[in-house]
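Recall from the previous lesson that a structure prediction takes nothing but the amino acid sequence as input. Here we apply that procedure to 5-methyltetrahydropteroyltriglutamate--homocysteine S-methyltransferase from Agrococcus jenensis. The sequence below is the only information supplied.
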Amino acid sequence: MTTTTPAFPGGTILGYPRIGRRRELKRALESHWRDAIDDAAFHEAARANRLADLQRLVALGLRADDASIPVEGAHYDHVLDATLTFGAVPARLRGRLPSGLAGEWLLARGAGDDVPLEMTKWLDSNYHYLVPELDAASNFSLADTRIVDRFVEAGAAGVHARPVVVGPATYLALAKGTGVRPLDLAERLVPAYAALAAALAAAGATWIQLDEPALVADHEDATLAELQDVARAGIEAARAAGLRVLLHVGHGDAAGRVEPLADAVDALAVDLVRGTAPETDGVQLVAGVVHGRNVWRTDLDAALEALRALAERGPVSVGTSTTLLHVPHDLDAEAALEPRLRSWLAFADQKVAEVATLAAALAGDVDEAAFGAARAAIDDRRAAPGVHDGAVRERLAALPADARTRSPYDDRAAQQRAALELPPLPTTTIGSFPQTGDIRSARARNARGELDDAGYAEVLRDEVRRVVALQEELGLDVLVHGEPERNDMVQYFAEHFDGFAPTQHGWVQSYGSRATRPSILWGDVARPEAFTVEWIAFAQSLTDRPVKGMLTGPVTILAWSFVRDDQPLGETADQVALALADEIADLEAAGIRIVQVDEPALRELLPLRREARPAYLDWSVGAFRLATAAAAPATQIHTHLCYSEFNTVVDAIDGLDADVTSIEAARSKMEVVDALAGHGFGRGIGPGVYDIHSPRVPAREELDELLSIATGAISDELLWVNPDCGLKTRGYAETVESLGNLVEAARRARAAV
Ligand code: GLN
Ligand code: ZN
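The prediction returns the following tokens.
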């Protein structure tokens, strides 16, 4: 334990949104990619955006002179920034990676035959980072000075900031190694951190923030000890250069994980929303009492009480539970949000103010007005109409014991075969067809009032006609309506359910220039009236082939929304499930024989810690089953999963009890098929044979190869032929060609069965 504890600011945040209050960075990135602006103009736009954020943070109450303000400011991704900073060029690009922005975009986006770095979700969030690609020859050095430059830039603007970088343990834990175990490269990597720290110290930095969230994830004991050693080496390297180190773990419970590092750090930032305080008495703690991942106002009374209790054990300052990257910039931009709901919320800027208020209070200066307002908002929310809806609660309380159980699969399958008369190896798509410029512009004109609802509906119906005719022409067996009416697969549902509110500017970075606008799930959920039936029934009226109803599942709706924090997630999921069950009943009544309930986010919400997984899988699988169990045995229920490797949750996929499961598989060469077959999965499976993530048209040989792997592992009665995911981001030209090849491949495979 250190005896002379260095001063740390009374309040800080661990990171701030970077896309810009009006998505300025997104526009700059996309303009540069289109060649509409040159390098200098891009750098100027990015700089202006970073400086605007710094000034905003000072205005909101963070101090400018004591390293309270973190500076990170990645163009595209903070893990990519570390890759560039330490010169970790993938072997396939070594010696020929262009310098500057061209090299950065090549790693992020690929070009020609050079594929980009793989993209994966950051811990259990919906943010995607670019996966470092390491091999036995990987070497590291201080190859790029962006982290130093941004510290200097902040200083010139009057802010003595705290540079932030992913720590070495987390960098290696999140990397992919070819022919090498990434953690074995630690001895080469740590000196590069030392060089960065030395450069920062020379530029006048006093603190550095090392983000090491990998320490709180699930690991074997030996791996955890190794990660702790690597984290310690990074900390010691920075301290040897003369910097003070704030170790930030966040994203879960640090207790039991960071204690061995307590003697090495100058301050420790932990997540107290999802975790508990570690036993590190005497170490400067940055207590993450303000939620970095959700948008509810902090209970300031409870937070202050917790802070005061911690302060008896050692020095404490106030922090956020994670970076604020995962919440939108500013609630004040939401002019259309109902004022009462708005009073319950805090976006990034409001959270910064909460941190400042709590820091002042902990120092003895309690702002009674601010505390009173927070108290009033929390009381108001508790009692507000809609937060508790008697009818919704009674319906859930009265669920019969078999509410999550369908009839036996064999019985259902026989009824479905008779009702649907499909060929072996039926072909289908995942739901969306390309969202053309025409559709987007009609939606925008409708939102601006330039196109009336009837005119907009006619544009959409035309699109459905086109999509149905195209699928018939291509010879697909189970058709879709194409989802042209949906702005987003969750927001569209949020707009039609009670208990949800969409935002206008609540963008959160998903990856690179892409951002999503999660809706706020604030109250009890119900579905006042059918909203997908009109579209599906219209599509069905145009064809004799079955058209699939298309719904987003309860887990995905929760995963991609800001969810109420006043009841267990499982209860909220069940409410959504019943709303979906109502929609399925209406689809059946309208003559729809197949309904797909998408759960692409099932894997995303899986807790990082093994011990928390059974409870999660129990409520998530249970909610899906509640949504679908009331369907008639003859109604074929499909589900769709993507975005992740699913090998670890095969049990849960089986537990969903869907009649047909389509799943992303093309890029991993059907890896999941073996896992499912090995598990004895006995219901319909459609492993994707067409990777829709790129405009490439899959060639005949490729499709044949993937399909033969699938037919080798799965019985012919169970196999479906489909793409990996929806087609909304594709163009029509490549879609038509690719689907044509897919149907041909299915025909060839059928001839062989
Ligand atoms: N039905 C949706 C679509 O096709 C599924 C999207 C997804 O899996 N993310 O777009
Ligand atoms: Zn998908």
